[in-house]
């Protein structure tokens, strides 16, 4: 499953929380961001991967999920980032 969203996060939201949010889900969750000349894709359960993305409000990203809890994890990430 996948969904394109625009990032709208508050100063209180952290990438640590985002990574921990996915712990209970049996799913692989990836975030894809197009940056000037290349595409960055990271596993959202990877804290270091999230740091390299340098997410900012207004960024357009694609959330992609695979696994038993794909739909639930997609909704959780989408709700957190918008």
TrEMBL record:
Q: Name one Pfam family in it.
A: PTS-HPr
Q: Where is the HPr domain?
A: 1-82
Q: Which InterPro entries match?
A: HPr-like, HPr-like_sf
* Protein name from the UniProt record: HPr family phosphocarrier protein
Q: Can you name the source organism?
A: Salibacterium salarium
């Amino acid at each position: 499953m996948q969904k394109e969203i625009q990032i709208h996060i508050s100063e209180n939201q952290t990438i640590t929380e985002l990574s921990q949010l996915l712990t209970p889900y049996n799913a692989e969750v990836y975030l894809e961001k197009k940056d000037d000349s290349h595409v960055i894709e990271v596993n959202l359960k990877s804290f270091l991967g999230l740091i390299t993305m340098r997410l900012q409000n207004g960024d357009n990203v694609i959330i992609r999920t695979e696994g038993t809890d794909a739909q639930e994890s997609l909704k959780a990430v989408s709700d957190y980032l918008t």
